[in-house]
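I have been asked to look over a protein record a colleague put together. Alongside the sequence sits a line of tokens, each denoting a local backbone shape. Please read both lines and tell me whether the tokens look consistent with the sequence. I do not need a full report, just your reasoning and any doubts. I have pasted the whole thing underneath without changing anything.
>
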Amino acid sequence: MASYNVHGGVDGWGRPYDAVEVCRRIDADVLVLQESWHPDGGTDLAHRVGESLGYAVTSFALCRGRMLASTVSVADRSSWGPRPWGGARQRRAMEVAPRDASTRRRFAQGTSPAEGERRPGTLGLAVLTRLERSHGEVWDLGLLRRDVGRRAAILVDVAVPGSDRVLTVVGVHMSHLSHGSPVQFRRLAHRLRHRPGDVVLTGDMNLWGPPLSAIFPGYRRVVRGRTWPAWRPIVQSDHVLVSQRLAGRVAGEVMSLAGSDHLPVRARLAL
């Protein structure tokens, strides 16, 4: 199984990359995607991946946003995107809608003629599986005062081939520490404490490994390696954690695949 923050299927300049092909190369039976872009009136990225690669998809919309449909060639620029400290907000490929109503209306109407139209849509979280699903649900983790959208955990119970065992996969895209994410981490840890059976928790945690180990006692991190930013990773924000009974039978890795600003993480479980 694997987790991949797809950054809406574009780089920082708004240039699309082949996210479906990257997911094909990840080749996971269960795949959790963060920042799956769903343009208004179109098909979201997670379902495009699912239809192309034979996955069933469970998704949840986290927040509204806009995506840059770039009309300016940036082929001569070798960087993944504009420096976050080096220019105006409108140069970034994706923008998330603010929470207050008046600013949100102006945000929805605004475009950036110099670089192209900004198309409205939704950023979401999705769990994709090629294994048989027996149950799926969404746990609402609430809306933090400084965050722009709700956070949630998607739980999918999948059948282990060749046995009567069921594995619960929990996919997340957590908020940042600066927004107060420990509140949501505690909510998730409390609910998982009462979850029976074998559990895999994976996603973009926006948090380093040691605090995660403290928050989720009884779970083991099985992928160790830097995942962000993809072109020169300095931190690991993408993780796979497994419950105690699975801990001795897992091999994990960070995959070097281009496209997003995150590198995918993948773990192989021997069940």
Remarks:
- The radius of gyration is 18 Å.
- The longest helix spans residues 181-193.
- Helices lie at 19-26, 45-53, 101-109, 181-193, 209-215.
